[in-house]
């Protein structure tokens, strides 16, 4: 008997190699950490298998097959299938052609890694933190295709290097994965056995890599949202054709409670994906297992929360890995449930300094005499006469030669493509349609029809809050006025009339039902638009329970798929400023040159957030942290160019009609970029002069990124004006009241900046040039260090240089209150008048 079990080696064998002894110790630690009672081990010489049983778990250890399985969390019928399948279907060794297929993939990954190291010699990690991970994923894709799947979404923070290699070779990152899949189907090498070009062959399946962001905790929410969007758009109602695969390292699993986020999201019924295959790259050393065992404990908690079995497999055993992948694919196909694959690596115990200095392939040499996986597996196949040494060398040389040739050819092609892109962008930026402001107004008849529908009360009993809301709507409409809630609801209704779906995520405490009225008698919802204003698009809303980061990630992932849907998240007041900053930092890339932010999600953020545990006190958002994470062209006055290069749109609104227009523009605009829009808390501004009229949203109207003072709304140049107040958001209303009290209405124009980023240079220039002798005063509620001031100042000086006269008129100190006091407002106008007096003295 010359075959050894992966981990548990029976005592009858007297010859132990160090690696096998380490395998045995590691598995014993894994089992001891995941079981409740002492494990008894019995060896059966007949079938070379080990059964390790506890009261709640059963581990199956097979020679050269799956190492062990933890299945206490699954139903009895699944256990019967699992035991029967492992005993019969997954105990056979791979055939020779399957071994060659695995070798081809491992060898190609090795060559890609060699190529990457030649370009970045200081890199200390392999492409995927493991030689076997990508070939294992390819084997999973193969089996999934056999089981009628045609789309695979892979979420992992370790795809960064694959994307970098794709850039070097000028191909799509997904195409590299597909070529590794295809190379496993080729037995002999030839010119067509490696084609890193998506135009060469039309495949019957697709692969999507979830673009890595700044935090591994964002991977699963993005994966969940994008997978569900694809399933909706392709009508995959039984979740059979679109699969989701997540891959985490043990360090990532132990950080930021990723397993808790997966657990929370998996319990949402409307986001059931039909099972996700979770792959864990467990690099935890034996000392970690014996002292703390974070990975084992987290795996146990994760498996219990999502009711998934765990397949433990040694990553160095190619046969076991491939069998585990086939088992996972069949389990997902039959039961449509989550399953966890735990790749356990035999790592030597190195210090932190050694882990930093030594790359993976060097560590593999000093780890008890281990050699790289590609070499060990190749030696095994050569020894078994499955393939010759010469054939292996020929394959390796061919792959390296092909990759280097593609790299050499890509340089000229990249230059040519870059010129073509510049020409295409130049034509697009000069195109009249894309460079003009999008008209988003609707006819008066459309407005009347929507308003009639929104004021219709159903015959059944409705909540008192909803009844008050309908009465309030009717009162405003009778006077020809629209508030924030009405403008938003009209925007959604009109978009649905035009065939665009609206998807709203809100907290349970949200009191605005839009046009969905709840029947108190049976809990059903009635759509007010059905009777009077029939729509084509669908309206759906979700009351999400989970961390803000999870909510944002799912909605962003959903909006990355072109489903003709406007995805909106109403950020609750209970979100802390730090959480909001983390969301922007983690999900919105600082550089949009690679199209990372090609999604049109809307974040509706209240002006103020509530302090934790306090329902009355408010806390500042600190917009400087948000605007610092956004990027745009340093100086561009072309609208199309601004939206192309920016990575997010930031708006701080003061007018309800602008809220309507920006939602319409976001859904119908050419460029898809995330929108962060600040609005009043619970639409609390109720004074009539802060509302808008029907004419503000009628035809031939559009979003106003800059709004002139209505008292100075003419095109004539006024040289007598000495000061202008420029502001953004709700502070506008406080400023006009303070100006009126001081009888300065005809002396100081107050203009509004509604869109912060991209900065509206054209509109600003047109508005300010009417007052050539005026000093521009920037006023805001935040102090000058934590507000918009630094961004505004940089934009003005970038455009005007030293010619501009720009000063700050807001709070110069940090204030505990979020609202401007009367003293603050008085100081703003005092500064203006003091400045004028000093000029007159000079």
TrEMBL record:
The keyword Transit peptide applies. It comes from the Eukaryota. Residues 257-344 form the Dehydrogenase E1 component domain. One of its GO terms (biological process) is tricarboxylic acid cycle. Keywords: Oxidoreductase, Thiamine pyrophosphate, Transit peptide. One of its GO terms (cellular component) is oxoglutarate dehydrogenase complex. GO terms for molecular function: oxoglutarate dehydrogenase (succinyl-transferring) activity; thiamine pyrophosphate binding. Residues 692-816 form the 2-oxoglutarate dehydrogenase E1 component/KDG C-terminal domain. The keyword Transit peptide applies. Its cofactor is thiamine diphosphate. Belongs to the alpha-ketoglutarate dehydrogenase family. PANTHER family: 2-OXOADIPATE DEHYDROGENASE COMPLEX COMPONENT E1, 2-OXOGLUTARATE DEHYDROGENASE. This is Uncharacterized protein.
């Amino acid at each position: 008997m010359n075959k050894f079990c992966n981990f548990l080696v029976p005592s009858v064998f007297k010859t132990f190699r160090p690696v096998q002894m380490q395998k045995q110790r590691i598995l014993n630690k894994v089992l001891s950490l995941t079981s409740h009672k002492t494990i008894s081990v019995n060896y059966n010489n007949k079938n070379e298998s080990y059964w390790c049983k506890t009261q709640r778990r059963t581990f199956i250890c097979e020679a050269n097959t799956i190492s062990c399985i933890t299945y206490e969390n699954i139903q009895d019928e699944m256990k019967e299938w699992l035991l029967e399948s492992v005993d019969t279907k997954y105990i056979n060794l791979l055939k020779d052609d399957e071994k060659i297929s695995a070798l081809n993939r491992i060898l190609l990954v090795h060559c890609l890694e060699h190529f990457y190291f030649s370009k970045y010699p200081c890199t200390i990690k392999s492409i995927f933190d493991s030689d076997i991970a990508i070939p294992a994923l390819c084997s999973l894709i193969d089996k999934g295709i056999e089981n009628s799947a045609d789309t695979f979404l892979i979420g992992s923070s370790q795809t960064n290097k694959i994307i970098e290699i794709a850039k070097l070779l000028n191909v799509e990152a997904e195409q590299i994965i597909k070529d590794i899949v295809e190379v496993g189907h080729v037995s002999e090498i030839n010119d067509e056995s490696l084609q890193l070009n998506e135009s060469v062959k039309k495949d019957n399946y697709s692969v999507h890599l979830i673009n890595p962001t700044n935090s591994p905790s964002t991977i699963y929410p993005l994966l969940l949202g994008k997978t569900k969007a694809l399933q909706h758009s392709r009508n995959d109602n039984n979740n059979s054709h679109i699969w989701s695969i997540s891959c985490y390292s043990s360090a990532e699993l132990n950080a930021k409670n990723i397993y808790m986020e997966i657990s929370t999201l998996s319990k949402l019924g409307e986001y059931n994906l039909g099972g996700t295959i979770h792959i864990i790259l467990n690099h935890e050393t034996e000392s970690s297992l014996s002292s703390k065992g974070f990975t084992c404990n987290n795996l146990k908690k994760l498996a219990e929360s999502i009711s998934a079995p765990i397949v433990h497999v040694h990553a160095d055993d190619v046969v076991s890995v491939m069998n585990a992948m086939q088992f996972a694919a069949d389990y997902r196909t039959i039961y449509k449930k989550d399953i966890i694959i735990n790749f356990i690596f035999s790592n030597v115990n190195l210090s932190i300094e050694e882990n930093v200095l030594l790359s993976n392939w060097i560590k593999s040499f000093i780890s008890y005499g281990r050699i790289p996986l590609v070499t060990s597996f190749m030696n095994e196949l050569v020894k078994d006469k499955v393939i010759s040494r010469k054939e292996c060398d020929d394959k390796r040389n061919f792959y390296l030669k092909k990759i280097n040739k593609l790299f050499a050819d890509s340089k000229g092609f990249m230059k040519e493509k870059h010129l073509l892109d510049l020409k295409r962008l130049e034509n697009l930026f000069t195109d009249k349609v894309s460079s003009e402001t999008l008209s988003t107004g609707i006819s008066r008849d459309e407005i009347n029809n929507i308003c009639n529908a929104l004021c219709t009360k159903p015959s059944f009993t409705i909540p008192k809050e909803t009844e008050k809301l309908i009465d309030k709507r009717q009162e405003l409409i009778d006077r020809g006025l629209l508030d924030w809630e009405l403008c938003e609801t009209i925007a959604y209704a009109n978009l649905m009339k035009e065939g665009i779906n609206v998807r709203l995520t809100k907290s349970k405490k949200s009191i605005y039902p839009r046009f969905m009225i709840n029947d108190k008698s049976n809990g059903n919802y009635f759509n007010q638009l059905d009777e009077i204003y029939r729509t084509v698009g669908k309206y759906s809303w979700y009351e999400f329970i989970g961390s803000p980061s999870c909510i944002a990630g799912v909605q962003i992932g959903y909006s990355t798929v072109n489903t003709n849907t406007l995805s909106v998240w109403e950020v609750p007041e209970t979100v802390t400023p730090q959480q909001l900053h983390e969301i922007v930092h983690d999900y919105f890339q600082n550089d949009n040159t690679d199209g990372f932010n090609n999604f049109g999600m809307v974040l509706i953020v209240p002006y103020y957030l509530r302090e934790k545990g306090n329902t009355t006190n408010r806390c500042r958002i600190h917009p400087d942290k948000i605007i610092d994470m956004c990027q745009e062209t340093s100086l561009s006055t072309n609208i199309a160019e601004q939206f192309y290069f920016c990575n997010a749109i930031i708006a701080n609104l003061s007018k309800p009609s602008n809220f309507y227009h920006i939602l319409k523009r976001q859904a119908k605009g050419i460029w898809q970029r995330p929108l962060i829009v600040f609005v009043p808390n619970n639409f609390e501004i109720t004074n009539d002069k802060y509302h808008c009229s029907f004419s503000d949203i009628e035809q031939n109207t559009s979003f106003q990124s800059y709004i002139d003072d209505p008292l100075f709304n003419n095109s004539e140049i006024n040289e007598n004006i000495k000061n202008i107040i420029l502001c953004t958001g709700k502070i506008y209303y406080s400023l006009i009241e303070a100006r009126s009290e001081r009888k300065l209405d005809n002396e100081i124009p107050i203009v509004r900046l509604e869109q912060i980023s991209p900065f509206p240079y054209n509109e600003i220039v047109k508005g300010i040039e009417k007052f050539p002798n005026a000093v521009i005063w920037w006023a805001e509620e935040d102090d000058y260090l934590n507000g918009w001031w630094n961004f505004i100042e940089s934009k003005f000086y970038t455009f005007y240089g030293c010619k501009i006269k720009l000063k700050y008129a807001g709070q110069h100190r940090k204030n505990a209150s979020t609202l401007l006091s009367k003293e603050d407002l008085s100081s703003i106008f005092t500064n203006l008048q003091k400045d004028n007096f000093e000029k007159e003295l000079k």
